[in-house]
Amino acid sequence: MDLKLLRGIKEDSLFILLFLFFIGNGVFPQSFNLDPPKEVEYKKQENDGKGLPQVRAELEEEERLNKKDYYMNPRSYGTNRILSPPVYAKTLSETGYGAFKDLKWMEAGMDYRTRNEYRENDLRRSDSGIDRPLLLRSRAYFAVKEKLDPFRFAFEVEDAQRKYSKYEIDDRDYNRAEPINAYGEFHLKNGLGNNRPFSVKYGIQSFEFLDRRLIASNEWRNTTNTFQGFRVTLGKDQNNWSVDILGLQPLERLEYDTDKRVRNQFFGGVIGHIRQWSSLITIEPFYLGLKQSPLSQVKYNSTTFTFADNSRVGREIHTTGIRLYNIYFSGFDYDISAILQFGVNDLQKQQRHEAYSFLFDVGYTYNHKWKPRTGLFYGYVSGDRNPNDNTNQRFERLYGFARPWSSSDYVQMENVQTPKLVLEFEPITGVKIDTAFVWFYLANATDRWNAANRIQDKTGRSGNFMGFEYNFRIRFDVMYGVKANIGYAYFKPGEFTVNTTGRDMNSNFVYLEMTYSLFN
User: Which of 29, 31, 419, 512 has the maximal Cβ count within 10 Å?
Assistant: First the structure.
């Protein structure tokens, strides 16, 4: 952490002082009782009345039948991946409708999401005006399992729209009536032993792995990352080990037409999950490969009725790394990743690719009824040191989720270093609040800031401090099937932003998101 980074933290310490002021005035609890309650109402335990030999024998039998659940969700901010089926879908027999009571083999669901946004001086745009878009997203899911085993299938369709914005539509927010899951599956429930399945899926798929920063559906964005191809799974999340093998082509999101496979581009990899010691550590080693052939083509813009160059250079990028995470019973948690990239960034020029990233997240959850967690995150993602040499150090972000980096959606996983302070708590059951203070710096001052219109100073003389962000979010259930998500993000531009854009105004982002689900 250099002197400029420390200076930036010092300049924005006013926000932290204000936060401490609120704590001191009773907005948040001033102290937390770390001692257990003096009187505890006794509740019957499942092993009451059993001798040690019987308990040991039951544990051995559970281990033999592979019924033990080893999976642990991380507590690090924004890293809990979306599993299948999606959260809004249910097994029909569990919906409470009498007509569905015997349909244990069928899953279904529908949801509808609206998000009203107010954006002032949005750095993703070329001007500093005000925009008030309304984002709309509808999804429906249907799947058949077990009844036709070993054959299963799933289908999910999504319709994403944006209204009332002054900007031209784009594939971040707009993608009409598009299947985001449409696959068949060959599934053997005990294919690799007791309760250890073997699965092969083929078709259109969306999914998330690791901490979502490299592979994600991108739940926050209005549209979804999708792929077409094979996904082989050995085991399942609850097993002490499992492996996922990917062989896919990314799909290009088209605003009005059916999404198509990206020509001459292939994505695959192997991701391991070792959970044998998940009470101490979960280990996830991985390899991901991206290969694209050179392509010379133009793309038709159906909004402006014009053609634009859509050529690509040939690339071959290899990503390998390891993720370690755990939740200690004492209240501490951690999530650490180290990632190395190598390969060729331009096949014609034979430009080498050498990039890396390391991510460190540690937190502590206090013994208090509000379940408060304080967290510290630091991430470093390399940028290109010299735009004129034959080696590229800019990290390839693949198909990750930008939201854990910036609530303003300003930062992606390339050329950035950032410390973050996080506080999460639940003052009322079901009401979840989180807030964070974040400082953003370019990892290399000569490289670009991609999300902010790719601004760049190749001389490096504009500095590397991108800016400071404060964000706040509250989530709660309004009623059965209705969820609310309300948030605010403030961004103060740093020297690099002001020097390269001339925009010294603060940025404000306010949103109200409502989700309506049929069965949840």
Answer: 419
Cα 161 versus chain centre, distance: 21
Q: What is the identity of the amino acid at 75?
A: R
Q: How far apart are CA 59 and CA 447, in angstroms?
A: 56
Cα separation, 352 vs 342, whole angstroms: 8
pLDDT tens string, the chain, 520 residues long: the values are 454 444 444 445 444 444 444 444 444 444 444 444 444 454 555 655 666 666 666 666 666 666 789 999 898 988 999 888 999 999 999 998 888 999 999 999 999 999 999 999 999 999 989 999 999 999 999 999 999 999 999 999 999 999 999 999 999 999 999 999 999 999 999 999 999 999 999 999 999 999 999 999 999 999 999 999 999 999 999 999 999 999 999 999 998 899 999 988 999 999 999 999 998 899 999 999 999 998 877 666 665 666 666 678 999 999 999 999 997 768 999 999 999 999 999 999 999 999 999 999 999 999 999 999 999 999 999 999 998 899 999 999 999 998 889 999 999 999 999 999 999 999 999 999 999 999 999 999 999 999 999 999 999 999 999 999 999 999 999 999 999 999 999 999 999 999 999 999 999 999 999 999 998 7
What is the C-alpha to C-alpha distance for residues 78 and 74, in angstroms, rounded to an integer? 9
Cα 248 to chain centroid distance, Å, stands at: 20
